[in-house]
């Protein structure tokens, strides 16, 4: 990174140093684990760039969802798109993008990350290994799923089973599995707390959003795209060689986000 570029950044080398210092923090850990050591510097440098909408990559399998259990017509939103219950039977519910912090039944710790819980939005099921899934087929359900996705990746000792459960199947996910399986350093627990979100784009079966996390005295954001796949929200994997959550960015405050956290 050139000296001129550092001088133009509102945080410059300080933010990069913070990201390196907290290398065990989740998002930096994802960069190292999935992008590979040679690409981690590039991914951290990308944090100096403005964030745009998360790029949407085509999936190898179309998103789908089961029909309603009673065989009746699936609920529809105002545009007439089908809105079905998920694999755990949670109703799709309100299809509006949550511009305010969603209601919660409570907050709980999942793999050392504080995540929301709701009987309306999910998770409907928590596996024996702590993996949370089954969320409502709505933008709010996707936000709930995104928070749980961050928690799922926090325990790096469970990366391989987590990737299998969390990511949309396909060649990009296969690449992540190979990388995670070959990286013996992907062990232990890293923690980061999500304190806000911003929905970038929301469609019937695909929601892109940014999640904000504190890193020292500033905030770092990651971009995630969730796809409705086989009755639940799954995470769209990045192209091979790219980091999960990229592009990253830095923020002085949470003015561009909906503040939402249990901490």
Describe this structure in words.
The protein is an alpha+beta fold and about 260 residues long. It is about 25% helix and about 20% strand. The longest helix has 16 residues, at about 140-155. The chain starts with a helix and ends with a strand.
Largest sheet: 6 strands, antiparallel
Instruction: Give the N-to-C terminal Cα separation.
Output: 35 Å
Structural class category: alpha+beta
Percentage of residues assigned to helices: 25-40%
User: What number is the mean pLDDT?
Assistant: 75
Quick one: how many beta strands?
Answer: 10
Q: What amount of the residues lies in strands?
A: 15-25%
Helical element count? Answer: 7
Radius of gyration: 18 Å
Q: Strand-and-helix sequence, N→C? A: HHHHEEEEHHHEEEEEE
Low-confidence stretches: 1-82
Shape: globular
What is the compact description of this entry?
With 263 residues, the protein is of the alpha+beta class.
Secondary structure blueprint with pairings:
Layout: H1 3-8, H2 13-21, H3 26-35, H4 37-45, E1 106-110, E2 113-117, E3 125-126, E4 132-133, H5 139-154, H6 159-166, H7 171-182, E5 196-202, E6 206-215, E7 218-229, E8 232-235, E9 249-251, E10 258-259
Antiparallel strand pairs: 1-2, 3-4, 5-6, 5-10, 6-7, 7-8, 7-9
